[in-house]
Amino acid sequence: MIRTLTTLGLYGFVQQALSKNVYLDWNITWVTAAPDGYARPVIGINGHWPCPQIDVDVGDNLIVDVYNGLGNESTGIHWHGLHQNYNGYMDGVPGVTQCELHPNQRMRYVVPIPVLLDEFIVPGDHAPYGGLEPLPDAILFNDMHNTKISVKPGTTYLIHVVCMGNFPGHALVIDDHDMTIVGMDGIAVEPHFLPPQYLRVAVGQRVDILLTTKNDTSKNYAIWDGLDIDEMFVQEGRSPPPGYNPNGTAWLMYNEDAPLPPPPIIHVNNASLDFLDDVTLTPIDNLPLIDPIQHQFIFDVYPTTVDGKPAYSINNMTYNAPDSPTLYTAIYSDPDACLDPDLYGDVNPFVVNYGDVVEIVLNNHHDNLHPWHLHGHDFQVLQRTYPYGGFFDGYRNVSATPMRRDTLMVEPMGHFVIRFRAMNPDK
């Protein structure tokens, strides 16, 4: 028996007949919460944290009236993983697809729900921290510390893993259980049996796995999650604070009366070999490599600072938020003028036509790895180097049916090549 949290919709005219509008009314406020045992102000909805789960069916329209009750912060809601086809003004990125939602302002989001497996919402329009990137204080599983997940014996579960962190990637191990990967960022993939490698999930990525429980219910098993030490400390040239714990533990509960075991001991000798290389997976629909390309953009990415705060430049340009959202500038400009990159200011624009095939080569000139998320599209991953694999100098063994996803990690002093068809004109 397979258990899953995913609600599958009906297709064709049956789906249309059952589609509905789902209305929500959200007041975004500060609330005090202590998810890891230490109280602090966090962003909540309608006075509560954790924020509410949204239950919708495929084909529904999600209609959310949002009020910014934060008082001291502007905000916007980004629906991570929903591509908002022809609906880009609902993508929720201040300065890009919408104006900031200032304190005491309201906005209605109308979001069509396509076929999806694992997406989440991101409220925010927050300035970067000064100095180094902030360190996470703790690891939470489903908004909690020491989470216990009850399971039944002899059952196969579909588990959606979502990395909602703000800085480092995570490694995930379920002690003495095998996992089979069946999806990445909402793209179904040919089943991939994970052992002996470990699963690494970058910020913003989603992974779908199948896990079959044991028939023996005499023991419980630890779920171990570890923050990427290299990403936080080694590559940043700093040391962990005294007593800092980069690990977290939850448990698969077969038996409430059995003790909780300690987390497994993980040995990572070579991250390039010990963790799954997600680029090697194959989408189940076998979509062929899109070709030929109309544009190849080469992004040379360097770390830098702006007003003493960490930032990154692409081709020696840092992003400077425009006075008017980029999408609005494009919509309200003369059709010929909107093709001129100079119209958009210091946002490093690259203008393409509808239907063009776009290839992006990203060279990472930094001794750290970084996740990259593309709004509005899935992209094919043609290649990605191992750490310190060098910069692009040509194609290497490109698959005829490349992996697709919308968030990808680039390795330190390495590169990746992605390709997509520009079929979402509001992006």
From TrEMBL:
It comes from the Eukaryota. It comes from Aspergillus kawachii (White koji mold). GO terms for molecular function: copper ion binding; ferroxidase activity. Keywords: Copper, Signal. Belongs to the multicopper oxidase family. One of its GO terms (biological process) is cellular response to iron ion starvation. Gene3D superfamilies: Cupredoxins - blue copper proteins (2.60.40.420). The keyword Signal applies. It holds the Pfam family Cu-oxidase. Coiled coil: none annotated. Residues 28-113, 130-256, 322-425 form the Plastocyanin-like domain. The keyword rRNA processing does not apply. This is Conidial pigment biosynthesis oxidase Abr1/brown 1. One of its GO terms (cellular component) is high-affinity iron permease complex.
